[in-house]
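Could you help me review a protein record that somebody else here produced? What it holds is a sequence and that sequence's fold in token form. I have pasted the whole thing underneath without changing anything:
=====
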Amino acid sequence: TNRPDVLDPALLRPGRFDRQIPVERPDLKGREAILKVHSKNKPLAENLDLTAIARRTPGFTGADLANVLNEAALLTARNNEKQITLSAIDESIDRVMAGPQRKSRIMSEAERRVTAYHEAGHALVAHALPHTDPVHKITIMPRGRALGYTMVLPDDDKYSTTRNQLLDQLAYSLGGRAAEELIFHDPSTGAANDIEKATALARAMVTQYGMTEAIGAIKLGTDDSVPFMGRDYGHQRDYSESVAAIVDAEIRGLIERAHQEAYDILQANRSVLDEMVVQLLEKETLNKEEIAEIFAKVVSWPKRPAWTGSPSRLPSTQPPVAIPERAAVAETTKKPRRVKKTTSSE
């Protein structure tokens, strides 16, 4: 079931359905295994690496991965090709993540330029900050409802996120809006989805993750959403008006600081931003290697000061212990033990 919360408690008593096994999204090894299953009867190119595809699809479910390979097979057949290539996989991943390409949507040169600055702003801010994931792809080709998008993906699976990583997410979410303000002095509606995501993230930092000094490590509000039934009653407030005012102020403060940080990064790297836009207008899509070449001159942003949530909790000057070597490496170097066979009389 997707809804263990609505089951009758009598069903969950000891001796009945008393064990709950959560089925999470697959990790890297799981995604690779799923890709192997769904690629068995499909003609893959020899140089196609399923491990590399698994690394590019963090957060994908089994159904998403099956969809990726099915889309790639359809694209290969439409192009009258015999084998599924990496380019077909790239296109199918884009389709699953952002929707099909809108070839019928004709954008003016002025709008293409605004979109290029917007996406380059996202990418540059993400690259300059110290706690963000690598930028894998930037495109100004319309897909779904988006005029373009920037793909920022982790190289490894992550199961928790630090405060600095969340602050970096806020900053690069607003990088597109900051670029429009810096260059054109007249922002567009293209940042609506970015603002929505940034606001939701800032609210979670304040009310769920305890990442501001004014509120502290307190969970505020209750969530009465029923996502699997298609209804969402929203965030129910269980705190006073005075606390609500503090929450609103903290959310606004996080957004404003992230917005200013993104603006300052773009201002300090204006020449690189312009170079990225020229490349986007010419090629429309840039991959990880092309992005890295352009961003080689980016001025990296300094790390933020240590934060403990209270002036009375001073950060320790003693570093954490070193990460021990993996036991698995030691085990592989050991020689197998010889086992002496004995008879029953011995």
The first helix runs from residue 28 to 38.
